[in-house]
Amino acid sequence: MMGSPLRNPVLFTLGPVPITEPVIVTWGIMGVLVIGAHLLTRRLVLVPSFRQAALELVIDAIATQIRDTIRADPAPFLPLIGTLFLFILTANWSWLVPGIEPPTAHLETDAALALVVFAAIFWFGIRMRGWRGFLAGFAEPTLVMLPLNVVETFTRTFSLLVRLFGNVMAGAFMIGLALSLAGLLVPIPLMALDLLTGAIQAYIFSMLATVFIAGALGEDRSLATKGKSA
Amino acid sequence: MNWIQIASILGAAFAVGVGAIGPGLGEGRAVAAAMDAIARQPESANTLSRTLFIGLAMIETMAIYCLVIALLLLFANPFVH
Question: Is this prediction's ipTM beyond 0.85?
Answer without folding.
Answer: no
